[in-house]
Amino acid sequence: VNSSASASSISDSTSPLFIAVADEIARSIRDGQLAQGDRVPSVRILSAQRNVSLSTALAALRHLEAHGHIEARPQSGYYVRSQLSKLQPLTSTKTARRPRYVNVNGLFGKLVESMGDDSLVQLSSAIPEGSWFPAQALQRSLSSVVRRRPNLLVEYGPFFGVPSLKQGIARWYAEQGCAVSPDDIVITNGCIEALNLALRAVAKAGDVIAVEAPTYFGFLQIIESLGMRALEVATDPAGGMSAKALRAALDLKSVGVVKAVMLSPTVGNPMGNTIPESRQRELLALCEQRGITIIEDDVYGDLHYGATRPPPLKTWDANNIVTLCSSFSKSLAPGLRIGWMFGGISAERLRMGKYMTSISTAAALQEAIAELLTNRGYQRHLRGLRRKCEQQVAQFSRAVERYFPQGTRMSRPEGGFVLWLDLPGDIDTVELHEQALARKVSFAPGPLFSASGQFRSALRLNCGRELTPAVLKALKDLGSLAGA
Ligand SMILES: Cc1ncc(COP(=O)(O)O)c(C=O)c1O
Questions:
Q1: pLDDT tens digits for 167-204?
Q2: Which letter does DSSP use for residue 237 in this model?
Q3: Centroid of ligand 1 to alpha carbon of 29 (angstroms)
Q4: What are 325's strand-pairing partners?
Q5: pLDDT in tens, 111-136
Q6: Pocket of ligand 1, candidates 192, 300, 323: which has the most ligand atoms within 8 Å of its Cβ, to mutate?
Q7: Residue with the nearest Cα to atom 7 of ligand 1?
């Protein structure tokens, strides 16, 4: 099974325990000790055999299921999948020879047009169904906040965020092992404002910013809009960017000075990978040595499938070279647009930037979220959301396996709700997108995720939608357009 190879490559000494347990089972399947159709040890037996907690054993089984090694049979347990995957794991990408001015906004414009079209099955934006979020709890919290404190509606509120929310966020990071003082947090309008401000604080037009290849197109759009240049660095689909690859890129004569690295170390977009802690520490040491700021996007971190999420890279940042940017847009309340940032060498510039671009962020909305952090409504909701995302990605993976052509390469996300596919043959996904629109389906074409037009045969699918018959049909249509 090809996916066995990818599962074993993501485990190293710093991966979460459940991945190591899952890896051992994947190896037994590959080596034939567990044959197709065999029953896999139950959660209880696995927990006793490997001397791990029940939740770790369960996370390992779910991880194997999400990666297509095993399948659940109702009332009966998990079994080794009988159908060998025709899908391949992704391969590593390459470093671009030079930094480039970016031009993704043209392509993005076309996508935006299709995003507003309700007649399409939208698999393009990374936005989950509204029903996955606790609208009622948010509504209760917001009503109670404005009833108690109507002045929140008629005053500007603190420029850099309300204390209760900053305390709540700091407490939540402390639970993940990352120390931050509430006073250092600046609340923003979504993660996207934080990313803009963090980048503007350390770089100017013409400067070079290193990114993973592929990378979140929002990074590229910001780099483009600020007249900066992007340097695409080789990325491996399981471990993300490595210090070795970054060092090699920095040492290229054609590259010049690199001001910042923009990364999503915990659950990247589009590949859903997490950079192992040892790699994160090496990247940090290298950037520190070369005077490069890291802008960490942690927006999917809380959607890691593990029983607990890996700490953000900022946790290991003893010399404060990392600005962490994040939001509740993917995890709790996409509609409230509440994000934040902290850390890095230019705290004062971050504050001034926030004041100059939007003065403050709606205080009532911040208070509503703060309440859900304090009463742990957020944490309870998150447990269900993580499971939901993992199941969705597993179901969409199954559908891709069924409907897409032999030789399609597919990501094995460790969190979040998107899949990255690389199609076989000579396919251009920008053209494929045009054809797909005619069949009423939309996805995000690969070149959006590149500064140099790479990934023409790749695409990203949003799995944050219930797999209704209409969505299944859309996937089937896409697969047949792709040559299945
Ligand atoms: C990696 C990443 N960062 C940031 C954002 C934007 O976050 P927000 O909606 O909070 O501005 C997205 C949204 O798709 C994203 O995928």
A1: 999 999 999 999 999 999 999 999 999 999 999 999 99
A2: T
A3: 37
A4: 297, 341
A5: 888 877 889 999 999 999 999 999 99
A6: 192
A7: 191
Q: Are 385 and 132 in contact (CB under 8 A)?
A: yes
Q: How long a stretch of residues is the chain?
A: 484
Q: Output the CA 63–ligand 1 centroid distance in Å.
A: 25
- Quote the CA–CA distance of 459 and 419 in Å, as a whole number: 8
Distance spanning both ends of the chain, measured CA to CA: 20
Q: CA 230: distance to chain centroid? A: 20
Q: Can you spell out the DSSP letters for 300-348? A: TGGGBSSSSPPPPGGGG-TT--EEEEEESTTTT-TTT-EEEEE-STTHH
What are the structure tokens assigned to 90, written together?
Answer: 């992704």
C-alpha span between 343 and 324 (Å, rounded): 6
* DSSP states along 134-168: -HHHHHHHHHHHHHH-GGGGTS---TT--HHHHHH
Distance 191 CA to ligand 1 centre (A): 6
Whole-angstrom CA distances from 197 to 187, 262, 274 are 12, 13, 24
Cα-only R_g, the chain = 22
